[in-house]
Amino acid sequence: MTLALETTDLKVQLQLDGDWFTVCDLSALTPGRGVAALLPDGRQVALFRDRNGNLYGIDNRDPFVGAAVLSRGLTGTHEGRPFVASPLLKQRFDLATGECLDDESVRVAAYEVRAA
Fold first, then answer.
1. pLDDT digits (tens, 9 = 90+) for 4-20
2. Are 17 and 7 in contact, with CB atoms under 8 Å apart?
3. Could you report how far apart the first and last alpha carbons of the chain are, in Å?
4. How far is 23 from 13, CA to CA, in rounded Å?
5. Cα-flanking dihedrals φ and ψ of residue 71, to 5°?
6. Which of 5, 38, 79, 91 sits at 20 to 30 Å (Cα–Cα) from 102?
7. Structural domains of the chain in order of their starting residue, each with its CATH number
8. How far apart are CA 25 and CA 17, in angstroms?
9. Contact indicator for 91, 103 with CB cutoff of 8 Å
10. What is the Cα–Cα distance from 37 to 31, expressed in whole angstroms?
11. Residue 104 dihedral angles phi and psi, to the nearest 5°
């Protein structure tokens, strides 16, 4: 099924201020790995595709150190929640909500993502 999706030339789109913004081809997202994309306003988003084909988008900036590195983090699940662990200090961020699983007072923005 994944191969069929990739051969249909689907685009990954991110919802920004109520509008859909095309970010990249779906084939650019390797399951289990992140990709950084530059948004029109200069921010960076970290995009992820899990092995089930679900798409996620969160801010790429690690709020603990200020570096744009979350797209390079390791992905996994904790109690059924998909997360990415920052490659620097290893804090885990929920890919669906942006909530930090290691410090509930910290979160990053999460975006609605689709393939169209």
1. 444 568 999 999 999 99
2. no
3. 16
4. 6
5. -65, -20
6. 38
7. 28-111 (2.102.10.10)
8. 21
9. yes
10. 16
11. -65, -10
Contact present, 50 and 94 (Cβ < 8 Å): no
Give me the half-sphere count of Cα atoms (radius 13 Å) on the Cβ side of residue 13: 14
Residue 76 in tokens = 């996994």
Longest CA–CA span in the chain (Å) reads: 42
State the amino acid at position 41 in one-letter form: D
The residue behind tokens 């490659």 is: 87
Q: What is the tens place of the pLDDT at every residue in 32-78?
A: 999 999 999 999 999 999 999 999 999 999 999 999 999 999 999 99
| 57 within 8 A of 49, measured Cβ to Cβ | no
Tokens encoding 57? 């988008």
Paired residues of 16 in beta bridges: 19
C-alpha to C-alpha distance for 93 and 85, rounded to whole angstroms: 6
